[in-house]
Amino acid sequence: MPTYAYACTACDHRFDAVQSFSEDSLTLCPECGGALRKQYGSVGVTFNGSGFYRTDSRGNVAGTASTSTSSKTESSTAATPAPAKAPASN
Q: What angle do CA 27, 32, 37 make, to 5 degrees?
């Protein structure tokens, strides 16, 4: 079950509560009875390895090689700007 951090808007009392996803959020401070608000913190994410690509999670090595070749072709084509169209005259 997840742990949520709460802070009271009246007395600044801070605490953590272990609640299931189906439970409603807490609304009253246990210290003073004031209104509570949830605290949101940053989530630590660690990227390990040599690189991260869309095809990294795939198990098929042959499919990975063909996909990376096609993406190189698309990127070289996309780097060339399309010719501008002439404005329509009335």
A: 30
In a 3-state reduction of DSSP, which class is residue 43? coil
Paired with 16 in beta bridges are: 5
Q: What is the pLDDT along the chain (90 residues), one digit of tens a residue?
A: 888 999 999 999 999 999 998 999 999 999 999 999 999 887 777 777 776 666 666 565 555 454 555 555 555 555 666 666 766 666
First to last CA, the chain: 66
- Distance of alpha carbon 35 from alpha carbon 29, whole angstroms: 6
Judge residue 26's burial from the number of C-beta atoms within 10 Å of its C-beta, 0-12 exposed, 13-18 middle, 19 or more buried: middle
